[in-house]
Amino acid sequence: MGCRVDHANGNIEYDNRTVHVRALPIGIPFNQFQLLAIKAPRVMKDERVVLGVDRLDYTKGLVQRIKAFERLLECHPEHLGRVVLMQIAVPSRTDVKEYKALKEEIDQLVGRINGRFSTADWSPIRYIYGCISQDKLAAFYRDSAVALVTPLRDGMNLVAKEFVACQINENGVLILSPFAGAGGTMREALLVNPYEIDMVAETIHKALVMDVDERRHRMQLLRKRESSMDVDYWMDSFLREMDQVECAITGPPSLIPVDHGYQSYLTEYIEDSTKLNLLLDYDGTLAPIVSHPDLAMMSAETRRVLTHLSQMPCVSVCVMSGRSLDNLRQMVGIEGITYAASQGLEILHPDGSRFIHPVPTDHQIRLQNLLPALEGEVCTNGAWVENKGALLTYHYRALSSTTSPERRDSLVQRAAELFREHGFYPHHTQMAIEARPPVPWDKGRASLYIMRTTYGVDWPQRVGGPERVRILYAGDDDTDEEVMQALNGLACTFRVSRVPVYKSSANYRLTDPDAVQSLLRLIEDKLDQRAVIPSSPTSSFTANFFITCIHESETVTSDEEQTDLSASDAQLKSKRRRRNSRNSTMVLSKVAAAGLLRSNSFKAALCHHSQDPITREGVGIHASVDSIFKPSVEFPEPSL
């Protein structure tokens, strides 16, 4: 839209006016619901209840929820006769055809499941279609073991907050969809994707078998936050922001256009005769920064491109992160690449070998002492602590939307003091503070170790030598600057940021993970072009290669052609000797085969040897791509 954006102050200048953007999540009358829960009589039996309270709407995910409960009973029969799903569906838009169809589908689904699992004294689902009083609703909230708030798409969804307010016994567990607004702040809930039926079923099982101490700890933190950030707090923060807002944006805009000049540079940097090493950060680079690390998912297209690149014989891929090794492998999910986790302290190579940097023996003891100190003093209003094994991270991203700037700064400052008091230097990352072991090791040193183990101790000479190894790195925070500085002058580096980074060591800037995906696709296209034949039929590929790609029934018998083959072979072998390259093989995929068939230079090369017009259905090629190019055909890698 061409707007001037002030990211630091949350202002947008558009059409000669200034728009102020603030995140002010609404609260509920917490004390009122708590009082209702105290006074309400018990309305349920001793069975453990999984509660759902929703308006009958297709966005609430009721069908998926009921199917997930059915899957729970299938996979965990120990819950039969002991657990029930209480689903309260408030009528909505009853005169709309689609809503009538939804009600009929739910009625049939509930009837089928009850008919399948019911016994003489127990039915798995209790379905209430109608409105109930607030007193009864508070009793349901109070006495339920689990609350399922799993909409497919929603606003804030205050049901989750009402459930927490009524949990005066602090025994319940909240299961929450990340697609509800409440999922951004209620971090102690169990987050689950409502579209994943099996995952929802396993999450319900986890909530049902969770030990009492963990249930109470999670609920105490939830209740503490919701009681302090109730509807009165929301109203006060709204009025306070209106008083504090500035009326104009002054100075130059914070956002500058991204420099796309790297494309022409990259074309020259990645040449046909290079080996390429891709070093990529995960959070904020391959996946977007979100409210919780478990929700940071790579796009399907990024995963496809990375998988394709990792399968190329001339490409090595490494994903680096501060996550634990197991979690990083789970989030990326690509085999045959290098994983550098815990800021490089743990490295898993494609062959399965591991590197683990040693840490002091008292490191874990100090981490165990730091964890409760952080949870007791600064884990409030959505801030939380993540234990990664060798690392410990205090996340305070949620504070930006749940507290005032002054309160947020105070909590972050106190967290940093706690880090120092327990013998840790507070490493600041994006909306987080990290405790690392006191060892001379970081992502920069880890990147050098990876290059040395991949290409040998003389890898810096290979960067400018005959093998011409090329290195690309992309990252989004200060830990990635460590890699950029370590590889300064040896790699092409990218800083991922929507705002200009004036002190970055990177060569170029990318705006977000979508821009990183575009970069990877550009690299993929450049490397795929290696399969396309050069314009001169005898410059790089031999006619033997051309004929190898033809169906085995196609043969060359002409003496003149055989002479041409020999001459071309000699020319290629001479080039290979001059380039000092080792022999290797690669498999021609159908995609590459199709590209070759479309290439005019490929047709010209075949014409040179067969003296026949070459078309897809012509004399030189009589069959389809599937029959012409055999999947297992191997041929010398071009110009290596």
UniProtKB/TrEMBL annotation:
<dbReference type="Pfam" id="PF02358">
    <property type="entry name" value="Trehalose_PPase"/>
</dbReference>
<dbReference type="InterPro" id="IPR036412">
    <property type="entry name" value="HAD-like_sf"/>
</dbReference>
<protein>
    <recommendedName>
        <fullName>Alpha,alpha-trehalose-phosphate synthase</fullName>
    </recommendedName>
</protein>
<dbReference type="Pfam" id="PF00982">
    <property type="entry name" value="Glyco_transf_20"/>
</dbReference>
<dbReference type="InterPro" id="IPR003337">
    <property type="entry name" value="Trehalose_PPase"/>
</dbReference>
<dbReference type="InterPro" id="IPR023214">
    <property type="entry name" value="HAD_sf"/>
</dbReference>
<feature type="region of interest" description="Disordered">
    <location>
        <begin position="557"/>
        <end position="584"/>
    </location>
</feature>
<comment type="similarity">
    <text>In the C-terminal section; belongs to the trehalose phosphatase family.</text>
</comment>
<dbReference type="InterPro" id="IPR001830">
    <property type="entry name" value="Glyco_trans_20"/>
</dbReference>
<dbReference type="InterPro" id="IPR006379">
    <property type="entry name" value="HAD-SF_hydro_IIB"/>
</dbReference>
<comment type="similarity">
    <text>In the N-terminal section; belongs to the glycosyltransferase 20 family.</text>
</comment>
